[in-house]
Amino acid sequence: MIWKFLRDKRGNFAMMMGAAMLPIMGSIALAVDFSEMNRQKQATVNALDAAGIATARQVATGASDEALITYAKNFFEANLGSVDPADTTLSVQLPNNQFGGGTLKLKAVLNYQPYFLPSFAALLGKADGQDGSEISFAALSEVRLKNTLEVALVLDNSGSMNNTGTGSGQKRIDLLKVAAKQLVDTLALEAAQIKQVAKPVQFALVPFAASVNVGPSNAAASWMDVEGLSPVHHETFDWASLTNPNKKAQKVGGIWRKKGTGWGAEENEILSRFSLYKDMKQVSDREWVVTGQQYVCTRYWSNGSCREGRWTETGYYDETISTYASWQGCVEARPYPYNVNDAPPVGATANTGIGFGDPATMFVPMFAPDEPGDRWATEADPSPDNFSAANNWWNDGTESSSGSTRQKNMGKYFDVRPYGATSPQGTGPSYSCTTKPITTLTDVTNATGLATIKAAIDQMAPNGGTNVPEGMAWGWRTVSGGEPFTEGRPDSEKGNDKVIIVLTDGENTYYTPGSLGYSDPADSKSIYSSYGYLKPGYNGSGVGRLFSGTSSAIGQYDYSNGNYTNALNEQMSTLCENAKAANVLVMTVSLDLNTGNSGENKAIQALKKCASDSRFRKDSVDPTKPAKLYWNATGSNLADKFKEIANELSNLRIVG
Question: DSSP letter at 415?
Answer without folding.
Answer: S
